[in-house]
Specification:
60s Ribosomal Protein L30, Chain: A; 4-stranded mixed β-sheet; 4 strands; 188 residues; alpha+beta; 2 domains
C-alpha cells in the first residue's frame, strides 16, 4: 500500500509538471496570437491610410486636370433652337449642323482640345428618367462626333445633369424648351 501511494504521488507530480508545461505552451501560443492580431491591425491601418491617400491623390489629379483646362467656347443645342424634342434623344439635323460648324471652327485653329458634353432636361417627369434622357442626348452628340469626325473617345467626357441645372424657369413651355439641351464645352 505504501508503494502504491508513492506511485500515485509520483504520477500526480508528473501530471502536474505536464499541466504546467501545457499551460506555458498555451500562454506562449496566446502571446503569439496577440502579436499576430496586433500586426494585422497595424497592417489594416496602413492599408486604409494608403487607400485614403490614393483616393486623395486621384481627387487632386482630377481637380488639377479640370482646373488646368480652360474653356475655349461652348455650343448649346436646345429645343428652343429646333433641337431635342420633349422626351427624345435623337439628334436633329439642325443640331448636326451646329456641331458641323463647331468642328469646322476647331479645324481652323487646331489645339489639343477636350470636349465635355452635358445633357440637360426640363423638370417634367421623374428625376431618374430625366437623368437617363439627359445622358442619352449627350451620348447622341458624342456618337455623332465619333462617327462623323473620328474624335477620339478619350477626348470626350459625357455627363447628365438631368433637371438639376435649368437655365430658364420650368413654369413656361418656352422655359422648358430652353432647359432641354446639350451643352458642348470645348476645353484646351
Amino acid at each position: 500500500m505504501g508503494r502504491s501511494l508513492e506511485e500515485t504521488q509520483e504520477r500526480t507530480r508528473r501530471n502536474e509538471g505536464r499541466i504546467t508545461e501545457v499551460d506555458q505552451k498555451a500562454q506562449a501560443a496566446a502571446q503569439s496570437a496577440q502579436q499576430a492580431n496586433d500586426a494585422a491591425t497595424t497592417a489594416n491601418s496602413a492599408a486604409n491610410a494608403a487607400s485614403s491617400a490614393a483616393k486623395e491623390a486621384d481627387t487632386k489629379i482630377e481637380t488639377f486636370d479640370r482646373n488646368s483646362k480652360r474653356l475655349v467656347f461652348e455650343v448649346v443645342l436646345s429645343e428652343d433652337q429646333g433641337n431635342f424634342k420633349f422626351g427624345k434623344a435623337e439628334l436633329p439635323d439642325s443640331a448636326k449642323e451646329r456641331i458641323d460648324q463647331m468642328v469646322a471652327q476647331l479645324k481652323q485653329d487646331p489645339k489639343n482640345i477636350f470636349l465635355e458634353i452635358e445633357g440637360h432636361t426640363d423638370n417634367v417627369g421623374d428625376k431618374v428618367t430625366n437623368e437617363r434622357i439627359g445622358l442619352a442626348r449627350a451620348e447622341a452628340v458624342k456618337r455623332y462626333l465619333y462617327e462623323q469626325y473620328q474624335v477620339p473617345l478619350h477626348k470626350i467626357n459625357v455627363i447628365s445633369y438631368g433637371e438639376d441645372k435649368p437655365i430658364a424657369p420650368n413654369k413656361t413651355k418656352a422655359g422648358r424648351a430652353q432647359n432641354r439641351r446639350v451643352v458642348i464645352k470645348v476645353l484646351a
